[in-house]
Amino acid sequence: MSPLEVPTINPNIDIEKSVGIDLGLKDFLVTGDGLYVPIPQYYRKAQKRLTKEQRKLAHKKNKASKRRAKQVRKVAKLHAKIARQRKEFHHKTAVLLLRKYEVIAHENLNIKGLARTRLAKSVHDAGWGTFITILANKAEKAGCLTIGVNPSGTTQMCSDCDAHVPKTLSDRWHACPDCSLELHRDENSGRNMLKKAEGHPVFKARGVRSTSWTMKREARPLSAG
Ligand SMILES: [Zn+2]
């Protein structure tokens, strides 16, 4: 690796503007300080339509028919439209986050578990990998920083006292019996992403704990669409 490829940390970066984000299917992302970015309705609608048109195509068995060729074009067009919408949504969301935060911790998608991988291939494929790449590139250009962390345990752990608070997929609320912290499970998870990033040099250099942001609560919800 040449010296030019070594990532340097902007010395003027404001670590008070740090946040952890949780990526999901219900909301596209939730930040540790309570901002919710939902998946846009138009995107969901287009996805549904694509599924319908793909089903129609599957029923047209005669490969030589003109009707089938027409349906193939229709599906391809819809695919392209969805890809365009998703890209636009990803860019908007990244800009929105970087207007507000300078250090963003997120789950490292390369080491995520099987369950999430299967979800990602579902109808509502949200394209987190593409989004994280876009976010990282934009952050670098803006002198900001994204940090990928191992997401294991981020859902179950209490972001305040580290207690293990078991949850099933349907448990949407984090209620800690030890320190009585109560908040949405995705917010708790987002906070844990940031906690996991605490070892990053950007925090060590300043000697400040990244959790100082917990006092700053913001209005919600926040729409990217
Ligand atoms: Zn707790």
UniProtKB/TrEMBL annotation:
Residues 3-116 form the Probable transposase IS891/IS1136/IS1341 domain. The keyword Thylakoid does not apply. Residues 128-192 form the Cas12f1-like TNB domain. It comes from the Bacteria. Keywords: DNA recombination, DNA-binding, Transposition. The keyword DNA-binding applies. Pfam families: Cas12f1-like_TNB, OrfB_IS605. In the C-terminal section; belongs to the transposase 35 family. This is Transposase. It comes from Gloeobacter morelensis MG652769.
